[in-house]
Amino acid sequence: MGTLKEIFLFIINTKKWWLVPVLLALLLIALLVVLSSSPTIAPFIYTIF
């Protein structure tokens, strides 16, 4: 969690607000990858696509 905190502090200090949607998209993709590896949740995720 320290890395995420540093990234968000960097965004706030340098006012590079265009990085926020990029980070949110990457976090969403990472969440989908983690959840799709679970055998109980995977069928529900595959129905989305």
Oligomeric state of this protein: single chain
Please give the alpha-carbon distance between the first and last residues.
Answer: 30 Å
* Total helical elements: 3
Q: What proportion strand? A: under 5%
Strand tally is 0
The gyration radius over C-alpha positions equals 15 Å
Q: What string gives the helices and strands in order?
A: HHH
In the predicted model, the low-confidence regions spanning at least 5 consecutive residues are: none
Task: State mean pLDDT (0 to 100 scale).
Answer: 82
Largest sheet: none
Q: Percent of residues in helical segments?
A: over 70%
Structural class of the helix and strand makeup? mainly alpha
Any idea how many domains?
1
Overall, the morphology is elongated
Task: Give an account of the 3D structure.
It is elongated and about 40 Å long. The protein starts with a helix and ends with a helix. It has one domain. With 49 residues, the chain is mostly helical. It has three helices and no strands. It holds the Pfam family DUF5989. It comes from Thermocrinis ruber. This is ABC transporter permease.
